[in-house]
């Protein structure tokens, strides 16, 4: 009985990692569906308002705890600028102009860009094998962009550029969050991000409606069942439940190993886009996807190897 319990606990982090990335993979599908009902800013305002209100309720019920006393709040404001504000503006507007399957492939580049930025900002130079895998991933993106430039039905160059903006924004967020993780708990960082997202996007949405004298239309999207289900998924399941799963996984598994599971979200988003939304997926998408995924996996693998080697030498 004890052995069975131990074996279950040993595989549980892998199960939660799979669940987390499956949830993240489907978020592109729900975002795409919601964008068929309303504009990106309205989608973001309701998404983060829902997440903020639910997390506030959890804090009130003492399910989670946060404490910002005598802590450098200015750092939280800084990282919240990159994510969620800049990141989700780029991602959502980019998703509006591209297929969700392609968006999933582009976002998969985040670990690669983090490695590149870490080389300049944190002086963490990539190994030759990491560099080769970075080049492979970038080549995969270039192949998709060049071959798909003539097909404007589902994706556009502007959409891809916006998604690259999201990738760099999320990468800067990851770099900065490493610096402040010793000052704040993961719950405190996430809750503050939801708060900033709710304030910024709702502020923009309300000002926009007020200027156009359409303030009474603020709750109009809630008439759509598709919009409501998308917001519930994005605000609660993707922003809160998935976060709890991430928090548990990271408490039981090294971050370098966790990052490898991120490829699953890409596969899920691509599959959902093609199967459910009937998005086109050409031969160059397949080759480009393989190049990106192999490159991302290789970058993560050799980074983990490098970290293990450094730890052994200490």
TrEMBL record:
One Pfam family recorded for the sequence: EamA
Membrane topology qualifier: Multi-pass membrane protein
Gene3D superfamilies: 1.10.3730.20
SUPFAM superfamilies, sorted: Multidrug resistance efflux transporter EmrE
Residue stretches making up the EamA domain: 14-145, 158-299
GO CC annotations, alphabetized: plasma membrane
Source organism (scientific name): Clostridium muellerianum
Protein name: DMT family transporter
TM ranges: 12-30, 42-61, 73-90, 102-122, 134-150, 156-177, 189-207, 227-246, 258-276, 282-302
Family: Belongs to the EamA transporter family.
Transmembrane among keywords: yes
Keywords: Cell membrane, Membrane, Transmembrane, Transmembrane helix
Lineage: Bacteria, Bacillati, Bacillota, Clostridia, Eubacteriales
């Amino acid at each position: 009985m004890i052995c069975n319990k131990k074996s279950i606990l040993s595989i549980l982090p892998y199960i939660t990692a799979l669940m987390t990335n499956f949830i993240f993979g489907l978020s592109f599908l729900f975002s795409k569906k919601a964008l068929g009902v309303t504009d990106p800013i309205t989608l973001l305002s309701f998404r983060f308002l829902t997440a903020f209100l639910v997390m506030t309720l959890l804090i009130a019920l003492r399910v989670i705890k946060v404490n910002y006393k005598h802590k450098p709040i200015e750092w939280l404001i800084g990282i919240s600028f990159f994510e969620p504000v800049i990141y989700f503006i780029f991602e959502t507007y980019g998703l509006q102009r591209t297929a969700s399957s392609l968006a999933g492939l582009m976002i998969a580049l985040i670990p690669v860009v983090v490695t590149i930025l870490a080389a300049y900002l944190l002086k963490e130079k990539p190994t030759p094998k990491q560099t080769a895998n970075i080049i492979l991933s970038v080549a995969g993106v270039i192949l998709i962009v060049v071959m798909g430039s003539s097909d404007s039905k589902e994706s556009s160059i502007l959409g891809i550029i916006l998604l690259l903006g999201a990738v760099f924004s999320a990468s800067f967020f990851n770099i900065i969050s490493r610096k402040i993780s010793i000052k704040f708990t993961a719950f405190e960082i996430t809750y503050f991000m939801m708060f900033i997202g709710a304030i910024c996007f709702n502020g923009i949405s309300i000002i926009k409606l007020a200027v156009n004298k359409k303030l009474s239309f603020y709750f109009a999207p809630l008439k759509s069942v598709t919009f409501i289900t998308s917001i519930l998924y994005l605000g609660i399941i993707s922003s809160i439940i998935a976060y709890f799963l991430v928090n548990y996984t990271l408490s039981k598994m090294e971050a370098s190993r966790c990052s490898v599971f991120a490829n699953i979200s890409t596969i899920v988003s691509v599959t959902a886009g093609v199967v459910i939304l009937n998005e086109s997926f050409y031969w160059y998408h397949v080759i480009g996807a393989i190049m990106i995924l192999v490159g991302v996996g290789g970058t993560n693998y050799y980074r983990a190897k490098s970290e293990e080697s450094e730890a052994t030498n200490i």
